[in-house]
Amino acid sequence: MAGKSFSAQLADFEQMTVKNLRYVAAESIQDVMEAAMTPQRGIGQGATGFEVGKIPVDTSELINSLTSDGVKGADSYTVSIAGYEVGDTLEFAWTAPHALAVELGTKNMQGRFFVGANARKFPAFVQQRAKEVSK
């Protein structure tokens, strides 16, 4: 940055910081969504057990019911994240009628926690991605 004014150097540093913040946030959000969208064979497909944090798939209804800022489909989160800027709010929802029951469970079925279990990993994902930009 030699030869630049102090103000110009600060502006460059600010842009680098914003770029790094965007990278860390966007990649961490994507890490959560990829984990939440990791499919596991559902009981209707012969599964005898399940792994907490994976989305069960008997049919494609639940996994394809994801909406991300109004865009529908299993990969819709990539569109939202691609346009993400620091300070934006992104909204993700699974709109299948049984999505909440699958997430939390019922008296007849254990919850799969494909959303909650992965959302709780967000701080670890942030920490991992922050290490990438601090190298």
What does it look like?
By secondary structure, this protein is of the alpha+beta class. Helix content is 47%, strand content 13%. The strands form three sheets. A three-stranded antiparallel β-sheet has the order 4-3-5. The protein has a two-stranded parallel sheet with strand order 1-2. Helix 1 (6-36) runs antiparallel to helix 3 and helix 1 packs across helix 6. The chain is elongated and about 70 Å long. The mean pLDDT is 89.
Low-confidence stretches: none
Q: What oligomeric assembly is this protein in?
A: single chain
SS element count, helices: 6
Q: Helical proportion?
A: 40-55%
- Rg from alpha-carbon coordinates: 19 Å
The overall pLDDT average reads 89
End-to-end C-alpha gap? 19 Å
Shape: elongated
Q: Profile the largest sheet.
A: 3 strands, antiparallel
Q: How do the helices and strands follow one another from N- to C-terminus?
A: HEEHEEHEHEEHH
